[in-house]
Amino acid sequence: MEQRKLCAILITDLRGYSKLMHEQEEVAIKVIEKQFEMFDKIIEAYRGKVIKTLGDGVLARFDSVVDAVECGIEIQNNVEEYNKGKPEEEQLNVRVAIHLGDTIIKNDDVFGNGVNIAARLVEIAEPGSITVSGTVYEQIKYKVSKLASEYSGKKRLKNIREPIPVYKILPQAKKEVPMKKAFGIAFVPAIIVAGGLFAFMHFYYLQLKEVPNLTGCKFDEIKPLSPILGFSIVVKSVRSDSIHEKGTIIEQIPQPGKHVKRGDTLFVVLSSGIEVTVPDVTGKPLSEAKLLLRTKKLDIGSVRYQTSSLPEGYVVSTEPKAGTKVSAGTKINLIVSKAIKVTKKKPTPRMVTVPKLINLSKRAAEEMLSSFGLKLGKITTVTDPDKFFDIIIDQNPKPGTKVPVGSKVDITINQEEE
User: Lowest-confidence range among 115-124, 158-167, 201-210, 268-277?
Assistant: First the structure.
């Protein structure tokens, strides 16, 4: 049966194990067996469940992210104690990573993006510490006593679309596993004798649920988990924020730790994204403008071209305009100069007046036309005994007509029959 659940995923990795297995197989097997024996007990004590081994590491899930982090600290404390006095090749160099996210539980295995992120976090983790995502840190920063942590910045993880805020949790002085961890119940300092009062209190507290800390979580990831959390989650408002990405929960009402009834509404305020100012890229080449916008955490929108006085390929303007305050990740449209298409006008032809060719011979007409920049066109012959022979008796165009230089003039010649 497949089940979706918000879980804390803990993954460990033994650094240098492959090299040790290659060089000293017996020692490597001894080390890995000791590790699994130690980790199984600690994970069980902190109410976690080992899902499977991953070669030289383990994958475990926890219903409580606080339990997962305290378990990670306990693991590193035990590893530190174990390594004392051991030769270097027998020491455990353990890396631990934890992420809180939506998972799919099926056939005693666990899948989903929450597992993928934890697996990528352990790859960048350092031996001796616990690497956690920002989602985990926001949940435990006020709940784990004497928490020693360092912000490592946003990291790009392989095959994960967006950068993940990463924190390093440092081990603390070793402590005994709390009684509530070992037995799964809270210590009750006083015994309620009155059965009626006990029944009432038991019923009342079953109806209440502690409000979790959702700040730092993505709203789109948390919203589908409303039935599991026991609350309706409603967006109260959206405002700009100088730290969190767009869609991140930055405030909630009621506050974390409060107890409210199941089914109550939890109002959240979302970040509209880190606010940045659109830079002025007017007059810059398109490639340079794109680079500058990306350095300001802005995305490139559409690119349109229009004629302008700027050289081809230079930015004319942007939408929104330079100086506008927008959220990081906003798409900026670019208007870019294109080459002005010059249409060559055909020169206006020089016009001349067609001369009178009638009564001229063919040869005389050719010379006359040539002097005007005209040419002799079609020649038609007729026989009219009433007119002189071998002369032009008609022409087209008619004398006095304006025509372009180079035009042809057709003539009709009166020719005697042979």
Answer: 201-210
Whether the CB-CB separation of 242 and 275 falls below 8 Å is answered with: yes
The answer to whether residues 9 and 49 belong to one domain is: yes
Q: Please indicate, yes or no, if residue 165 is contained in any of the structural domains.
A: yes
Domain end residue (candidates: 242, 271, 300) = 271
Q: How many domains does the chain have?
A: 4
Select from 128, 122, 109, 104 the least CA-distant residue to 158: 122
Mean pLDDT along residues 374-395: 90
Domain-embedded: residue 189: no
CA distance linking residue 332 with residue 329, whole number of Å: 9
Q: Are residues 254 and 286 in the same domain?
A: no
CA distances to 151, 165, 220, 269, 272 from 250, rounded to whole Å, are: 18, 15, 14, 6, 10
Contact criterion met (CB below 8 Å) for 114 and 107: no
Residue 260's domain is classified under what CATH number? 3.30.10.20
d(CA 55, CA 22): 14
When the pLDDT of each residue in the chain is averaged and rounded to a whole number, the result is: 83
Q: Is there a domain that residue 143 lies in?
A: yes
Q: Does residue 316 share a domain with residue 217?
A: no
- Per-residue model confidence as pLDDT tens digits over 315-337: 999 999 999 988 888 899 999 99
379 contacts 386 by C-beta, under 8 angstroms: no
| pLDDT for position 183 | 35
With respect to residue 343, please indicate whether it lies within any of the assigned structural domains. no
Decide: helix, strand or coil at residue 86. coil
- 178, pLDDT greater than 50: no
For the four alpha carbons of 63, 66, 70 and 72, in that order, the dihedral sign comes to: positive
Q: In angstroms, rounded to a whole number, what is the distance separating the alpha carbons of residues 295 and 217? A: 25
> Predicted confidence band at 70 (pLDDT cuts at 50, 70, 90)?
very high
Which of 271, 292, 307 delimits the end of a domain? 271
Question: 149 near 121, Cβ under 8 Å?
Answer: no
pLDDT tens figures, 10-37? 999 888 766 777 677 777 777 788 888 8
270 by Cβ neighbours in 10 Å (0-12 / 13-18 / 19+) ranks as: buried
Q: Which long-range contacts does 159-163 make (Cβ < 8 Å, 24+ apart)?
A: 159/116, 159/120, 160/116, 160/117, 160/120, 162/245
Domain of 355, in residue numbers: 351-414
Which secondary-structure segment (H or E) carries 2? strand 2-14
| Residues 355 and 303 both lie in one domain | no
Helix (H, G, I), strand (E, B) or coil at 212: coil
